[in-house]
Amino acid sequence: MKRADNIRPLHARTEALLRRLVRRDAEAAIRKVLATTRPEDIAAAMEHLTWAEQRRLYRVIEDQGYAADVLGFLSDQSAVEVTRSMTEDQVVDLVNRMEPDDATDLVGLLPDALRDRVLEGLEGESAVHDLLRWPDDSAGGRMSPMVFRMPDTATCGQAIATLQQQHSELATSHYVYIVDHQQGLVGVTSLRSLLTSPPGTPLVRIMTREIITVAPTQDQEEVARFVARYDLLAIPVVDEARRILGVVTVDDVVDVIRSEAAEDMLLMAGVSEASDHGGILQHGWRRAGWLLATIAGGVFASEIIVSYESTLEEAAVLAGFIPVIMGIGGNVGIQSATVAVRGLTSGAIQIQGALPFVWREARIGVVLGLFFALMLGLYGYVRYTASDEAFIGPAVACSSLLAIAFASVIGSSLPIVFRRLNVDPAIATGPFVTTLVDILGIAIYFNVARWLIHS
Amino acid sequence: MKRADNIRPLHARTEALLRRLVRRDAEAAIRKVLATTRPEDIAAAMEHLTWAEQRRLYRVIEDQGYAADVLGFLSDQSAVEVTRSMTEDQVVDLVNRMEPDDATDLVGLLPDALRDRVLEGLEGESAVHDLLRWPDDSAGGRMSPMVFRMPDTATCGQAIATLQQQHSELATSHYVYIVDHQQGLVGVTSLRSLLTSPPGTPLVRIMTREIITVAPTQDQEEVARFVARYDLLAIPVVDEARRILGVVTVDDVVDVIRSEAAEDMLLMAGVSEASDHGGILQHGWRRAGWLLATIAGGVFASEIIVSYESTLEEAAVLAGFIPVIMGIGGNVGIQSATVAVRGLTSGAIQIQGALPFVWREARIGVVLGLFFALMLGLYGYVRYTASDEAFIGPAVACSSLLAIAFASVIGSSLPIVFRRLNVDPAIATGPFVTTLVDILGIAIYFNVARWLIHS
């Protein structure tokens, strides 16, 4: 995570400059920056501006091809905000200029009424109509329909000729897909093989028949796992008849991996949506959901504690160990849950056969529990020596052992249960586990303490 | 994160089969599976076996090229375990067959004595010696030295001829890098451009002069961010004289992004190392570190609470709200810290100029604080109506507001402080923030309560 700072200033400086220019409405100067900056960088810089500033900057862009590129690189939210002030015709023009997969993402984000009119306005044979059929986070939703297909009767020379003729459409192809007369995928070869084989070589002679494909409905994370495992530049999406519908390219996979990781991280912390924009109230609202669960759990815990009021009145010191029992249980639970989520994501833990994992976590919990119970018990024993407080040490030791052991079982199994219920298991690692474990820990602690006091 | 299950069984089945065969020591049957399975899949399946089983399976592999491939795909730990039982000559033979970047990783992991002897045994001009100079997680450590270089006087036809002659060394090249007579990088073009240009075209006519490069010392995460932003297949690593030392390819970037995300996730939860191996005691040990911080914080909190023993004896009910004050503060702190870590990773938050971010988080904290203070205060007010308990509602309201506001400031600023100190900010989001915020929350709560009781 450490970073060399020697190249950052370049972007940081351009970004700061752009921000200043937009705020001063210096159109001529902005045009100068635009002329020497890549659309990727403009899009990245725009993410740091307010919506109004983003719209103002975007209106300055004159070259519509460049504008379409910038739009393709913007985050979903920014893209929607930028298009909000445009006419229908402007949106249609931009969508027609965008790569079909980016265009489909954008069209999918538009308000219903505008989307329908934009779809009508698109060029007749636009691929956007087809791509909109698939969910956003599926292979179908991520694929590009631009595929370099060749019949299984063709030669390398013919493939090269096709590439030369359709240069602009095939600009992002890394592989040649070879199809039979029913358009079924039979093999694949790389552009490099075309270069290094004599032009007369039949494609079937140099193609690989073992092709890793995905179905259009397959989840984007699964696609990402294939691309990562087999070091692919692109993976073809095929229907049941093995006809190629499109390809998911590695640059989209990189985006998927990055956004899924960020999403998981935020979910783990109980933040429901990643966005740097919106007012303070909106931000608060996005985080309040899981905090409400914490509040509900906390109120529940308070009722448990208050129900032991007479025990507490006998020994107010008991209250002192509430934080440590809660803290240690919660953190052990989060550790187990995180290891479980990571295992489910990487495929190391299968839903079927997760028992050995939970059993291992339970044993780790017992080891940790024994260790910390000994530590806390000793502290309690040495610290509270008065005869009416002598129960504190044993009470803290027993209850921390139990709380830690239960926490590791709950933490390791909840994500697996969530996955089975088709809920994102990352949710389980956040406030959910801690709240559950907190309540359990407190119930254990007071029960053990009361039992020890009265015996 | 949802997943279609239709393709999983294939791998799950092969993996389960392999595991059974290894446990039964069925060599002939294992060879049959090996013959029809990709080395990537064998490596993935091996990760689920014990070290002893991994070694047993690996010894069955006869084809040394295949064995080298499997070794390249294994995790660091597995690779070390598998080589542990080999002779020096066997390791040298495998290292010589591996891709230089994978070989370098492996050599870097070997015990010192073995590493020195293996390095001596390597083929004279092995690139491993050069690559070992750079840190593991830098561009230099991640690069492959196999670069397709052409002089700036060459034509497309000459480039194609070079590719045909050096087919095996250049098997992973996606671009042609054009260098001047001093070996300085002047331009780049794609294999696709070679295919679609007449053979006589000079390379300088079709090359792009704007090249995104990295220095060998640059952090791998920065490299990943470039590759992701500009949709590159490879990024050249150049020295100060712009001579190409190697290229980092997109498949390695995918691995970097995945492993950094997993590492961050585990760090956030206070698990110091990702591994599915080792005994229960080792696992416990890896997690105990941060838990010790929790224990220390908890004991500190208990001392604070006990110092208010007389207040508690006046109103034992006070203890009931310890969990909710701690829970809400801790969770708000983690939310702010996670948003900060994510922003630092994506580059959205710069260390210079982080103040607006902390200020925004502080305001979000106040909004959340007001909301939950009202809620908890109302609950306390309605639930505890006896005259000697009437202070509960206001005490809970005031202290939860303060605890939440402080939590968001601490949570948002700690990761930035950590980054500045060159410590991984993800550490700040785990037990560290919660422990700090817990102690603060409790101190606030009891102070407010005592003050309200006595006034």
As a whole number of angstroms, the C-alpha radius of gyration of chain A is 29 Å
Relative strand content of chain A:
5-15%
Instruction: Report the end-to-end length of chain A measured between terminal Cα atoms.
Output: 54 Å
Kindly give the count of domains of chain A. 3
CATH H-level superfamily of the largest domain in chain A: SLC41 divalent cation transporters, integral membrane domain
Instruction: Give helix % range of chain A.
Output: 55-70%
| Largest sheet composition of chain A | 3 strands, mixed
Give the strand order, joined by hyphens, for the main sheet of chain A.
1-2-3
Name the shape of chain A in a single word: elongated
The CATH topology of the largest domain in chain A is: Tetracycline Repressor, domain 2
CATH top level class name of the largest domain in chain A:
Mainly Alpha
- For the record, the CATH architecture of the largest domain in chain A stands as Orthogonal Bundle
Secondary structure tally, helices of chain A: 22
How many DSSP-defined strands of chain A?
5
Largest interface: A-B, 131 and 131 residues
Oligomer: homodimer
Report on the architecture of this protein.
The structure is a homodimer of 455-residue chains. In chain A, 64% of the residues lie in helices and 5% in strands. Chain A has 3 domains: 8-131, MgtE N-terminal fold (Alpha Horseshoe); 149-251, CBS-domain, CATH 3.10.580.10; 280-453, Tetracycline Repressor, domain 2. In chain A, helix 21 runs antiparallel to helix 22 (431-453). By secondary structure, chain A is mainly α. In chain A, the strands form 2 sheets. In chain A, strands 1-2-3 form a 3-stranded mixed β-sheet. In chain A, strands 4-5 form a two-stranded antiparallel sheet.
